[in-house]
Design brief:
The chain is an alpha/beta fold and 416 residues long. The chain has three domains: 165 residues, 3-Layer(aba) Sandwich (Molybdenum Cofactor Biosythetic Enzyme, Chain A), CATH 3.40.980.10; 73 residues, Alpha-Beta Plaits (2-Layer Sandwich); 165 residues, CinA-like (Maf protein, Alpha-Beta Complex). The chain is built from 15 helices and 17 strands. The strands form four sheets. It has a six-stranded mixed sheet, sandwiched between helices. A five-stranded mixed sheet has the order 14-13-15-16-17, sandwiched between helices. The two termini are 51 Å apart.
Length: 416
């Protein structure tokens, strides 16, 4: 089953948009046992689009065309695909009905520009778009199944997951699992596997997908389900407390689930992270059950007014101090009624450091009421990465406490 991607758009060619869609589509296909043989990126050029659609469809069983389904004149996918297949363009009733419903939900009129998205090759089959205005469609060309998808990543993701992957013939003998880990890098995990699993089965493919904050560890095999499960169990045990979740979960999802199981709530008192923790937790559906309030107190005055931090404490120790983060977290918990809390105060940079508190210094207070822990760390990274990492560490520290993991996390040693 030979598969090809054709990515379209001048924005991809100029670098205005980075192609993340092909990586995500390839990953989804990989998980069901299909690989991508060819990937081509082309601008909004009629001749080039025609030539590549024609040649790729002759050489492959599946061709996924990404992009070019919008309402503007440079969205050429439907027109060129119809031309290549020698089909007339006509208004598709399902595509029009989709557009009408999409406009009605937003309280806007259906414009002539929008109607362009309903003009599709005659006889094509519609691929629903659960989020955007443009449906996808598919036709058979030169014995190849050609499918068109939107360029908007969130729309593409839903279309692939719910309407394309279920129609593809997956290899039933493929076993594929993912572990989402925090606090370990690829080289460290590879060395751990080398040292503690020296007889690694040659039929088990171990892979990594570096991300932030989680590192995805992938195990893929073919035709040996029992050996796969045995290897997965050993790998899970080896990585231990660093495994946040299995599958495609996240730190916030895991934390919300753990808190919900206990019927408890969390609050955040944020300074240098500027509300990132609250944003992360509330991105999870159902988070209102475990999160009632968070506090972004960037200035010293707001730390006093909103959280009750003592002005004398700030004067004596400074905002980036153990004493202040303890008063911050206690103030946040007292005002929110939450059982768990995190407070952070740090120097994200690039300016503002001193000899005793250089840029990258962070104080964290976390835990349950009357059982607070604190830690001073230094993260030598740029401002954006600093905020992301402080947020991730804070969520992970609460996760570890909820699971009763008593050992200090290994990543503390890297940020002393």
């Amino acid at each position: 089953m030979k598969t090809a991607f054709l990515l379209t758009g001048n924005e991809l060619m100029s670098g205005d948009i980075v192609d993340s869609n092909s990586a995500e589509m390839a990953q989804m296909l990989f998980e069901i046992g299909l690989s991508v043989d060819t990937k081509v990126t082309v601008g909004d050029d009629r001749a080039a689009l025609h030539a590549y659609i024609d040649s790729l469809s002759r050489e492959h069983n599946i061709l996924i065309v990404n992009g070019g389904l919008g309402p503007t004149q440079d969205d050429l996918t439907a027109e060129i695909l119809a031309q290549t297949a020698d089909l007339p363009i006509e208004e598709h009733p399902v595509a029009r009905a989709h557009l009408e419903a999409w406009c009605e939900r937003r309280g806007v009129a259906l414009s002539p520009a929008n109607l362009k998205q309903a003009m599709l090759p005659a006889g094509c089959r519609i691929i629903p778009n659960d989020r955007g205005s443009a449906v996808g469609f598919e036709i058979d060309l030169h014995g190849c199944r050609v499918m068109t998808t939107p360029g908007v990543p969130s729309e593409l993701r839903l279309m692939m997951r719910h309407h394309i992957l279920p129609t593809l013939e997956a290899d039933a003998s493929i076993c594929f699992d993912k572990l989402q880990c925090f606090g370990l890098g690829e080289s460290r995990i590879q060395q751990m596997v080398h040292d503690h699993m020296p007889n690694w089965p040659v039929s088990m493919d171990l892979g990594f997908r570096a991300g932030m904050p989680l590192l995805e560890v992938k195990l893929r095999s073919k035709g040996e389900p029992e050996l796969h499960q045995h290897t997965l169990a050993k790998l899970h045990h080896l990585l231990g407390e660093h495994v946040v979740c299995e599958g495609s979960g996240t730190l916030p999802n895991t934390l919300v689930a753990l808190l919900a199981e206990r019927g408890e709530q969390i609050t955040f008192a944020e300074s240098c992270t500027g509300g990132r923790m609250a944003s992360e937790i509330t991105s999870v559906p159902g988070s209102s059950a475990v999160f009632g309030a968070g506090f972004v107190t960037y200035s010293n005055a707001m730390k006093c007014d909103m959280l009750g931090v003592n002005a004398a404490t700030l004067a004596q120790y400074g905002a980036v101090s153990e004493h202040v983060v303890l008063e911050m977290v206690n103030g946040a918990m007292g005002r929110s009624g939450a059982q768990w809390g995190v407070a952070v105060s740090g120097i994200a940079g690039p300016d503002g450091g001193s000899d005793d508190k250089p840029v990258g210094t962070i104080w964290i207070a976390w835990g349950k009421q009357h059982a607070m822990k604190t830690r001073r760390l230094r993260l030598r990274m740029d401002r954006s990465m600093f905020q992301r990492m402080v947020c991730a560490m804070s969520l992970d520290l609460i996760r570890r406490d909820l699971l009763g993991l008593e050992a200090e996390p290994s990543y503390f040693g890297r940020y002393l």
